[in-house]
Amino acid sequence: MDAAGNDQRLLANHAVTGDFAVFANRIVDTPASGQQLRRLGADILDTHVVGEHELVLFGNRLLRQKYRADRHPDAVGQSIKEWRTRSHLIRVGRTVTIQGMTRFARYAWTVLGINLLVILWGAYVRASVSGAGCGAHWPLCNGVVILHAPKLTTIIEFAHRASSGLALVAVVGLAIWAQRMHSLPRAARRAAIASLVFICSEAAVGAGLVLFKMVARNESIARGWWISAHLTNTFLLLAALALTAWYSSGAPAPRRPVSRSVLAACLAMLAAALLLGVSGAITALGDTLFPAVSLRDGMTQDFNGSAHLFLRLRIWHPLLAVIFAVGAAITARAIAVRLDGNLSATLARVLTAILSVQVATGAANLLLLAPVWLQIVHLLIADAVWIGLVLFSAAALSSERRRG
């Protein structure tokens, strides 16, 4: 290091553990400002593949405690060395996991949970035929701010709107916080911005459903298109929120270049899950608009050529669900076998288990004539399947191909 110069070379191929290394070869002016040190920290924490492994440095706490404007840049290397001795990284075989979770990561998972609850309540609004409880008014309920002697349907719909507003605020906070955290991985920041985009479009679609009266007992084909758009946007919102939480919890970002075969397989599974979700939304709408009094009556409705389109499409959802569950489980297992690391294999097993539960729940939903409570459970597991697929795909795209 040239003491007479104004530049300092920091952390050149600094070894962290065994097969791991931090590649953060950066030039920082002396004395370094707080902003420069934070940017250096972000570069370090964005480190990707070293050899056959992924190294994720998850240290917002370190940045707060160690990277100070009054510290000389030479102290950064010593700070990294001290930090690695505090067991923030745990190595099990070829898998690196993170011990502990930052406040942002915990908040991101919480926001995902909040949105799941809002989605489930929205399904209850549809199943209880309460979508018109506030009339054709949005965002006000029946044109007023404070409800006076509201009906039950009005309370149900108003509660959904209020919870949706809280979810919107939570996502806005997530996106702002993500952009202010210099140590947050770039993938997490981008996913947070995507979450903000999709929560806004979610609100727009919800407003359209109300203003165009695509709620309650509306049996039009147009409502089917609106429901499909709503389901698609909801799934994309969940994907963005899940990836924000996933990457902020220390999971590695996708490798570059990604495996084309793995990418194609993951995209195919996600597209199939999205189409299956749309068919499920149409099926649930048909169950709400045209409830069957018995299993035989329901089958008669489904095969009646003059029946409503929603009923004639309803018969296909169980068949597609079984085909998808088998295909996704086999595909996920085949991808995991080709990859190096335990994370993809673990997620593949978890995904298979969730798919099995979902098929069983769907069968019960059919046999019991789709009671409202079981529709909610069915939707919750469907959301879990979707999130599981998204996280499995993220893990698969960040893993190396197995050698030998």
Order of helical and strand elements: EEEEHEEHHEEHHHHHHHHEHHE
Task: Name the shape in a single word.
Answer: flat
Look at the structure and give the mean pLDDT: 79
Taken as a percent bin, the fraction of beta residues is 5-15%
How many runs of DSSP E, i.e. beta strands? 10
Number of helices: 13
End-to-end span in angstroms?
A: 42 Å
Q: Reading side by side through the largest sheet, how are the strands ordered?
A: 1-4
How helical, in percent, are the residues?
55-70%
Radius of gyration, in angstroms, nearest whole number: 25 Å
The low-confidence parts are: 1-77, 79-100
Q: Please state the structural category.
A: mainly alpha
Explain what this protein looks like in three dimensions.
The protein has 404 residues and is mostly helical. It folds into 2 domains: 7-98, no CATH class; 103-401, no CATH class. 64% of the residues lie in helices and 7% in strands. Strands 1-4 form a two-stranded antiparallel ribbon. The protein has a two-stranded antiparallel sheet with strand order 2-3. The radius of gyration is 25 Å and the shape is flat. Mean pLDDT is 79; it is low at 1-77 and 79-100.
